[in-house]
Amino acid sequence: MQVDRRYQCKDVLLLAYQSFGVLFGDLTISPLYVFKSTFSGKLSNYQSEDVIFGALSLIFWTLTFLSLFKHVVILLNADDNGEGGIFALYSLLCRHAKFSLLPNHQTSDEELSTYHDPRYSYRNPQSSSVKKFAERHKKAKTALLLLVLFGTCLVICIGFLTPALSIRSSIEGLQHRSNNLHYGVVLVIACLLLVGLFVLQHRGTYGVAFMFAPIVILWSLSIAAIGVYNILKWNPRVYKALSPFYIYTFFRNTGYDGWLSLGGVLLCITGTEAMFADLGHYTAASIRLSFFCIIYPCLVLQYMGQAAFISKNFDAVSTSFYASIPDALFWPVLAMATLAAIVASQSIISATFSIVKQCYAIGCFPRVKVVHKSKWFRGQIYIPEINWVLLILCLAVTTGFRDTNHLGNAYGLASMSVTFVTTWLSALVINFVWCQSLVLALLFVLFFGSIEIVFLASSFVRIPKGGWVPLVLSGIFMLIMYVWHYGSRKKYLYDLHNKVSMKQILTLGPSLGIVRVPGIGLIFTALVSGVPATFTRFLTNLPTFYQVVVFVCEKTVLVPYVPQKERYLIGRIGPKSFRMYRCIVRNGYKDVQKNEDDFENDLVMSIAEFIQLEAEGCGTLEGSVDGRMAVVRTSEKFGKRLEISEVEQNGEASSSMPPTILNSSKSHVLQYLQSTYEMESPGYTLRRRVRFKLQQDMTYKDLNVKDELSELVEAKQSGVAYVLGHSHIKTKLNSPCLKRFLIHVAYSFLRKNCRAPAVVLNIPQTCLIEVGMNYYL
Question: From CA 473, how far away is CA 466, in angstroms rounded?
C-alpha cells in the first residue's frame, strides 16, 4: 500500500508540474493589465491609500471566491470522465436527464462504459419538478442548448482576445523603458509575434511543450518575488488590504465611479475558465496542488506588491507592473512576460480548436477539417479554417484598438459572461447529476451568480469602449451555429421520413433486382435504422451494386471519448444471402477521425467477427428492425478470425509502371485503371495496404459462415467504394419567407463554403461515388 501511495504521489506531482504550462498561463499574465484597467476611468481621480487598498481587496476576494472556491474547490468535481468545460457540463446534463436534441440516440449508447459515472450511477432519487418540466418541453431543451452555444461563442471570442491583449500588454513594457519609442513600433512587434504564433499552429506543440511548464513556473515565482520586493520597499502595511472592510471603504469613497471600475477588477480571474476546460489533460488533485501551492500565493503577492507601489507612485498606475520592477531585472522580466504571454495564448488557442470541434460533433458548426497527428498529445487538434479566422480577428482588434484598456473591456466582458453561463450549468448539475436538493443549487446560483452579475453590470457600461466586440461576434457565431443546426436537423428529418422500409427491400430478393459486382460498397447515412433514400436513388439510375453492402452511420454520443473496443456496432440487414450489413460508428464529442485505410480494415475485421458471433449465438446483441446488433470488438477472439498481412509497395515515384496489382475478380483493364488512378492521387504511397485471408487451421461448423467470410475477404480485395449523398436543399413553395431565407441563402452559403463530407471523412477521390439528391424541406 505504501508503494502504491508513493507512485500515486509521484503521478500527482508530475501532473501538477505539467499543468503549469497549459492551465495557468492566462491567469498568471493578468497582473500586466489589471490595475491599469481598474484605474483607467474616473477612478484615477481618487488617489488615496484607502482607495488603492480597496481595489486590492476587491481583487483578492474576487480571485478567492470565483477562482479558488468556485472553480478549484467545487467545479473541478463536475468533470465528465475527467473532462471539463461547458460541453462537459452539458453532456452530464443530457445523460442524467432527457435534455439531448441529438436525433439518433439508441438504447445501446447507454451501455458504453463511459456513459455512466460510477460516482453518480448509484443515486436514483425521484425526479425533481424542474427536471420533469425541462424533459417535457422541447423549448426548455432548446434554450439549454442555446445557452451552451452562447458560452462556446464567447470562448471563441476569448480565443482571439487573449493573444491580442496578453502579447500586446507584454510588449508595451518597451514603451515604459524607452519613452521615445513610437507606438507603431510596439504594434508591429506585437503583430509579428501574433502572426508567428498562428502560422506555426499546424506544427503542434509536441516539440516545444516541455518548455511551457518551466516558463510559467519561473514567471510565477518572478512576479511573486517582485511583489515581495515592492511590499518591503514601498508599503509593508499593504497586508491590511486583505480585510473585506476596505471594500466597504472603497465604495463609500468612490460610489458610482468605484462600481464602474469593477470591469477592470474582473480581469484578475481571466483564464480561470480555461483551467476548468482543460481539466481532461490532468487530475483535479494535481490542479489543486498547483493552484494552492504556487499560482494563488504568487498572484496574491504580486497584486499586493503592485498596490504597495501604486500607493506611493500613483502617477505610474498606467504602467504599474513594469514601473515596479527593479532596473536590474527589467529586461529578463520583459522576456519572461513575452514568453508567458505566448504560452497563455497557445493554451487558449488550443482550447478554441477543441470547443469548435465539440460544436461540430453535435451538428452545430459547419464542416471543418480537424487535424490530429499521431505524435501529438491526446486531444490536441488543429483546425486550419478556425486558425486563420482567429488570426484575422486578432490582428483586427490589436490594430483597431489603440488603447489596451478597450481590449481589456472586451476580454473582461467575454470572460465574465462565460463564467456566468458556467454558474447556471453548474447549478443544474448540482441538482440533476449530483442529486442534491434544489435549495442547494439555488444557493450556489445566488451566491456566485450575484457576484458575477455585479461585475457583468459594470462591464455592460463599457460596451461602447470595446465591450461590443465579443457581443457582436458572438451574435454572428451564434447565427452561423443556429442556421447550420437548423438546416442539418431538417435534412435529417427528411431522410428519416423518406427512408425505405425493410419490406420493400426484402421483396427484391438476394440480388436486389440488380447486378452485383465485386467489391464492398460503403453507403454513408445519418440514419441508425432503415435504408436511406440515397441507396434506392443509386439503384434507380444505375441498376448495379457491390456484392457486399454496408450502411455506415457515424454518430456522436454525448461522452468525451468512446473506447475503441466499443466504437463499432455491427448488424445485419435482411437475410444472410443479401450480404447487407449495418455499421454504426460511435464517437465521443472529443474523438478525432482516423485514417480511411484503418477504418476499412477495422470494418472488415468487425464484420467478420459479427458473422462468427452470430453463428455461435453469443455477443452483446440488441434487437432492432434491421436485425441484431453487436458490439463485436469486446469479444476475446476479435482479430483472430482472419489473417492479416502487410502488402509491400514496389512502385516508385519516378516509375511509369503502376504498382503491383493484387489478385482480384476484376478484369485486368479495370485493375490497371484503378492502380493508375491511385498512383496519381496524392498520398497514395502513405496508405497502409493489408491483405486478409481466412485462418487455415480454423474449423467451421457451418459452411455458410466460411462462404460468407470468403466472400467478404474477396470483396475487400476487389476494392472499397464510398457512396455519399450530394444533396441539393430546397424549400417547399408554400414555405414562410424566413424559412426560405434560412435554407436558400444562409444554409446554402455555409454548405458551399465549408469542407465537403468526403474531405472531412478522409475519403480518397478515386473511391468516391456521389449520388445527387433533392431535398424539399
Answer: 12
